[in-house]
Automatic annotation (TrEMBL):
Source species: Suillus subaureus
Gene Ontology MF terms in the entry: transferase activity, transferring alkyl or aryl (other than methyl) groups
Its membrane topology: Multi-pass membrane protein
Family membership: Belongs to the UbiA prenyltransferase family.
PANTHER family in alphabetical order: 4-HYDROXYBENZOATE POLYPRENYLTRANSFERASE, MITOCHONDRIAL (PTHR11048:SF28), PRENYLTRANSFERASES (PTHR11048)
Entry keyword Transit peptide: no
TM helices/strands, residue ranges: 21-40, 46-67, 87-112
Record flagged with keyword RNA-binding: no
Keyword terms: Membrane, Transferase, Transmembrane, Transmembrane helix
Name the record gives this protein: UbiA prenyltransferase
Annotated GO CC locations: mitochondrial inner membrane
Lineage of the species this protein comes from: Eukaryota, Fungi, Dikarya, Basidiomycota, Agaricomycotina
């Protein structure tokens, strides 16, 4: 994997999965399971919904990590254990981080748009 791509993955903190993504995943799944029980959804659809919300939770968490690093870049390069973060170290520019953030937000909005009116 090229170093720029590796830096972008590090920026999203996908390599930490499922840490952090769980905070987004469990509320989604809890609501989905409650609704599935209420409408007697078949098990294969429950499993597909769970996988869908796992991916959605990962994307939301990744977008939050990108926003955090963009807002804290002036602080991060002053703190020893945060100096290695992609924006603080200069491996990723603010423009690249902004493009990545807009791509993540676009994917999130698209996924939410496919959930339908019952969501």
């Amino acid at each position: 994997m090229p170093s720029k791509a590796r830096s972008l993955v590090k920026l999203t903190r996908i390599h930490w999965f499922p840490v952090g993504s769980n905070f987004m995943f469990w509320p989604f799944v809890w609501g989905s399971l409650a609704a599935s029980y209420h409408v007697a959804l078949p098990m294969n659809e429950v499993i597909m919904n769970t996988l869908f919300y796992a991916l959605l939770g990962m994307l939301v968490h990744s977008a939050g990590c990108v926003i955090n690093d963009m807002l804290d870049h002036n602080f991060d390069h002053k703190v020893e254990h945060l100096k290695g973060r992609p924006i603080a170290s200069g491996a990723v520019t603010m423009t690249e981080a902004s493009i990545l953030l807009f791509m993540l937000i676009g994917a999130i909005f698209y996924m939410f748009s496919t959930t339908g009116p019952m969501a």
